[in-house]
Amino acid sequence: MQDYQFVDGTRLSSVIEALIFASPEPISEDKICEIIAKGEENLGLETDTIEPFVEKLNQRYEENGLAFKIEYVAGGYTFSTKKRYEPWLSIFQHENAYRKLSQSAIETLAIVAYKQPVTKPEVDDIRGVDSGYILRQLLEKVLIEVSGRLDAPGKPLLYKTTKHFLKHFGINSIDELPKPREIDEILKDDDMAEHRQFLFDRQLELKELQDKVDDEDTRDTALSLIEAVEKIDEEEVPDLDEYTADELQLEDEEEEESNVKNEQEDSDDQKLEDEQDSTEDNLDNGEEE
After folding, report:
1. Mean pLDDT, consecutive 10-residue segments, the chain of 289 residues?
2. What local confidence, expressed as pLDDT, does residue 236 receive?
3. The total number of structural domains that make up the chain
4. What phi and psi, each to the nearest 5 degrees, are found at residue 141?
5. pLDDT at position 240, please?
6. Are residues 190 and 240 in the same domain?
């Protein structure tokens, strides 16, 4: 089919390109034809005509030395960077991957991908720990979804991967995932040594950074407690080092004099009470006589 030109001068290839570019998810050929038909009912666009247009667009990108192309993944078309730019993009992708998914999330996602549909108890049994929180994280990231309930006591939910999962890993179906045996062979390959070392170093850096943050938080807490104790000491307990020997002796003498004075006052008060009692007794005796 020739590159159709609309009334406003827009070409069909440009419309297809714009739809693929604007779609947040891989857009299918059926969806492209459906959208175009709403704007041009008499065009009669068939789904098998989309692929030739995409090939022409990719040819144009290649001739102009552009860094991207259109690929067919997860049942639709989407833009992606070319493989030749992998050395520059790998660092960026690795850094973002570790920010987005923890080691526990990657383990859980792998179990769901290879065992789907799978229940939470089955995931827990494989990992040996509770995976409820991790499964919720993967659901929020739209990497997995609920596919139904298992016909068993309790009717546990079944989980499977999503189209977003396929797009994230650049595959069209779960069948394209590497087999466990293939993964072992890849990891044992000498060509993967540098890649493994890169990932190992990155994990160490992230762990050291986390430990540093934890240490700083602990140290700040300890300092806060020490400062609080020092503040109490400063307010309630005088520093004896600030006093001279004479000043300490003078304070002791003043304290001793104060004690003697208090004792003398107590003695005088007692004598006065005794005299009053004696006077009252004499008066009582006189009245009786």
Report:
1. 70 91 92 85 80 93 93 92 82 58 86 92 91 90 90 90 85 83 66 62 68 59 50 46 50 60 63 60 51
2. 45
3. 3
4. -85, 0
5. 44
6. yes
Which residue is it, tokens 């990108």?
Answer: 61
Instruction: State the DSSP string of 177-245.
Output: SPPHHHHHHHHHSGGGHHHHHHHHHHHHHHHHHHHHHHHHHHHHHHHHHHHHHHHHHHHHS--GGGS-H
CA 57 to each of CA 33, 63, 68, 70, 120: distance values in angstroms, whole numbers, following the listed order: 17, 10, 11, 8, 45
Listed residues 33, 52, 84: the one ending a domain:
84
pTM reported for the whole predicted model = 0.42
274 in a domain, yes or no? no
Domain CATH code at residue 152: 1.10.10.10
Q: How many residues does the chain have?
A: 289
Residue 5's DSSP bridge partners are 11
